[in-house]
Amino acid sequence: MRILGIESSSLVASVAIVTDDILTAEYTVNLKKTHSQTLLPMINEIFKMLEIELDTIDAIAVSAGPGSFTGLRIGSATAKGLGFALNKPLINVPTVDAMAYGIFKTKSLICPLMDARRNQVYTGIYENSSEFKIIEPQCAISIEEIISKLNKLNSDVIFLGDGTPVAREFIEATLKVPYTYAPAYCNRQRAAAVATLGAEYFKNGKVETAAEHAPNYLRVSQAERERAEKEIGNQDRT
Known about the structure:
Blueprint: E1 2-7, E2 12-19, E3 22-30, H1 39-50, E4 59-63, H2 69-86, E5 90-93, H3 95-101, E6 106-117, E7 120-128, E8 132-142, H4 143-153, E9 157-160, H5 163-174, E10 179-181, H6 191-203, H7 222-237
Parallel strand pairs: 1-4, 4-5, 6-9, 9-10
Antiparallel strand pairs: 1-2, 2-3, 6-7, 7-8
């Protein structure tokens, strides 16, 4: 079984190939560059280096959100285009789940934090000591809310994600349980985790067609919020 993983939910652009439970290639870049310029060349490069053809994959696992609206749309469009062209199924992998899945064999709770701005984070709470368990499904909430939930669970916590530096001061002032921060090699999104978790979903038949796939933004975009606020303002003036 060969799974292509695509991750583009943040500044990180990452692609990977997992073949029969072995990571055979991964290409990850964390730069302020549009993913529309990087994803396809990165995919082409890893297949060229492995000397295999694109049509040898069994499915495409894509980080489906939440995250950057632009990044998710580009990742989704790339996966859908390949799915249509190759007639391969897609695997919808929740972004926060995949981030947590990258931390393995720990007795601590795992809490990814993605900066969602407006004093919110995309987050969730997970266990991954012997098997992967979702304690709190991915959601968009305030940092105060997720810290409150963690305090009530009364367990050690590992934080990761680009929301961690933003929330660090608040974490250190208000979290009442022991905690640590994931190191650099596993503190951001990685396509290897998307592909590996996607392979598990694939074994269980959790696939969709390219036509069916759509990103999960969890909340409306900034442009939609601003439009709604403008409409409310106009109504108030009439």
